[in-house]
Amino acid sequence: MMRRKKMPDPFADYAWLAQAGWVYGMHSAQLWANPAQAHERLTELAFEKWQACMTGAFDAGAAMMRGATPEAVAKAAMAPARRRVSANAKKIGKG
After folding, report:
1. Mean pLDDT throughout 4-24?
2. Over the Cα atoms of the chain, what is R_g?
3. Separation between Cα atoms, residue 72 and residue 61, nearest integer Å
4. If you ran DSSP here, which 8-state letter would residue 11 be given?
């Protein structure tokens, strides 16, 4: 019996982009609502983005050195940002 290869969800990346946009909008609203804390919070958010970017770059480099496919390299590069967006969405959702 021949197994069919599972097709990737063509909308998964768009769902992630929508979630990232929602998180960005919620962070913006929180900053607008509490401008006294904005400087500290913006610093935290910038560091969080930088950390995800650097982790993704190192993970992508490691994947390339292992001989991973271009798709696997791209997934390794984006995984830290996806995890951070997901964690932020959960945190915002809890209040």
Report:
1. 83
2. 17
3. 11
4. T
